[in-house]
Amino acid sequence: MKPTERPQAFSDPPTPTEFNMARYCLATSAAECPDKTALIVVQNEKSPKDAAEQWTYGQLDEAVRRIAAALLDSGLRPGDRLMIRLPNTSSYALLFFGALAAGIVPLPASSQLAVDEAQFLLEDSAAAAIAIADEFDMPTSAIIRFTPEDVMAMASYSRIADYADTRADDPGYLVYTSGTSGTPKGVLHAHRAAWGRRPMYQGWYGIRSDDVVLHAGAFNWTYTLGVGLTDPWANGATTVLFTGKKNVQVWPLLLERYQATLFAAVPSLYRQILKYCDLSEIDLSSFRHGLTAGEALSAALLKNWRKAAGTDLFEALGMSECSTYISTGPDIKIRAGSPGKPQPGRAIAILDADDTSNNQPLISERIGLLAIHRSDPGLMLGYWNRPDEDAAVYRGDWFVGGDLARFDEDGYLWYEGRADDVMNAMGFRVSPLEVETAIATHPNVAEVGVCEIQVRSEVSIIAAFIVPIDPDEADAASILSHTADHLATYKQPREVVFVETLPRSPNGKLLRRELAAAFSKTSG
Fold it and tell me: How many CB atoms lie within 10 A of CB 336?
């Protein structure tokens, strides 16, 4: 595919000038079908169906606007940041959307953060308030503080606010990158980010208003807030979220009990389901397909899932700065190993990684930096208080996030890893993804991570860290022989390390730098 055959600017209908993300998600369905179930929260997988917490669109709309009124009456003003550090309960979601409804900027924080990590987010964001549970206690005396009980009381506040008359480009919400390299940085999204998710509706989900979407993530994860709440609600669908103990056996039971039509998770969870659950015992007659993001979907996992569940898994590729923009879906034929094609309306290009003065998209099959046109409404407003970094990620009209990729002749994108993950082997640039894909086909490999490690001064080699399926059969020589059959000599690992687990971020991303650091400690 020639670069001129791909869109050179975002071509979906433009975002309305006046736009509030919470209103967009809730107001229409609250008016047209107020009694329809919008949210089901399950805390105990063994409880009967009618014991789950359920919210209709009418109830959600009212609760969110009452919370908005309570926040404004507490002294907060539109544009203030509100950090959310709550347990995985429905109050998290209600507060997030209540803040949006008031024009206040929510900062969803993970409950897994250490106190010093959370303190950094609080101070860096200059948050005016925090919603925090006792178990996450941290010094917050100088700002407004809400307890979980306060949040639930806000849902019944005496006053109901109208949705704030925010503009599309007004600050919507603030998230922080996982900090895999250096200090975490805030990514500020506008209210228009919800409109920027519209290409996902048919380009990834194939979503319908009668869908029941089960999401495996926690409320604090933007994957959950987006795929599990924002998009189903914007389409009048029903979403199911489980807040109990994450036992892998619970997910097939929930799929059956709530007749879920779509299921969203990371590939590793699908892999665990296949390993520990017997799907032949589960009624999946309502289930249409699964959605996956956060890490690469292997061809072997896709094949095994299709065989066991009889449904497809549709993959998406994205980033904190724009959510997903490449995907497969019901109308896009899956090509194993590729995350898919640009979603409808999106302008995606590959730019020269070495010649930063050349902003012309590369032709097919050329590896370069993956770029998104600045006209995409899903793109962030910018990094929080980091104007120098804002300027550094744009090349002309293209946002460049550091991912290496290429398009094939049919328009499928092939991910080649991070620019800063690329290894230098014998003078050749080698993508760790390419090596990992080859090793993953070995019959005794459950998971694999590849990185460059330094073994002597000025001498580095490629190492493969492997979680074996059968530890008793772990054999480095067999792995090396296998890779010799699938990779050029300079791409083959020189070291094989068997491990119990691979280090991953809370979002499931492989932390290759931690692999290298762990090797240095054990061999030093």
Answer: 12
Q: Amino acid identity, residue 438?
A: A
Cα 398 to Cα 370: distance, rounded to the nearest angstrom: 9
Residues 323-368: pLDDT tens digits?
999 999 999 999 999 999 999 999 999 999 989 999 999 999 999 9
HSE toward the beta carbon, residue 345, CA cutoff 13 A: 20
Name the pairing type of β-strands 238-242 and 37-42: parallel
Cβ atoms within 10 A of the Cβ of 448, count?
25
CA pair distance 38, 41, nearest whole angstrom: 10
- 524: which residues sit within 8 A by CB, 6+ positions away? none
Q: What is the pLDDT of residue 521?
A: 60
Lowest-pLDDT choice from 116-120, 491-495, 503-507: 503-507
Band the pLDDT of 246: cuts 50, 70, 90.
Answer: confident
Helices (H), 51-147: 57-73, 90-102, 115-125
Answer for the pair 511, 269: CB distance below 8 angstroms, yes or no.
Answer: no
pLDDT of residue 519: 75
- Which tokens is 70 given? 């309570």
For the entire predicted model, the pTM comes to 0.85
Answer whether 80's CB lies under 8 Å from 68's CB.
no
What the chain holds in terms of domains, given with CATH numbers, is 421-523 (3.30.300.30)
Q: What's the sign of the alpha-carbon dihedral 321, 323, 325, 326? A: positive
Residue with tokens 């799907």: 279
> What does the DSSP 8-state code read for residue 346?
-
Q: Report residue 425: phi and psi, to 5°.
A: -120, 115
Backbone dihedral angles phi then psi of residue 277, each to the nearest 5 degrees: -125, 145
Helix H or strand E segment including 198: helix 198-200
Residue of 193, 154, 156, 149 whose CA lies nearest to 173: 193
Residue with tokens 């080859």: 438
What is the C-alpha to C-alpha distance for residues 55 and 240, in angstroms, rounded to an integer? 11
Instruction: Please tell me the distance from the alpha carbon of residue 392 to that of residue 465, in angstroms, as a whole number.
Output: 33
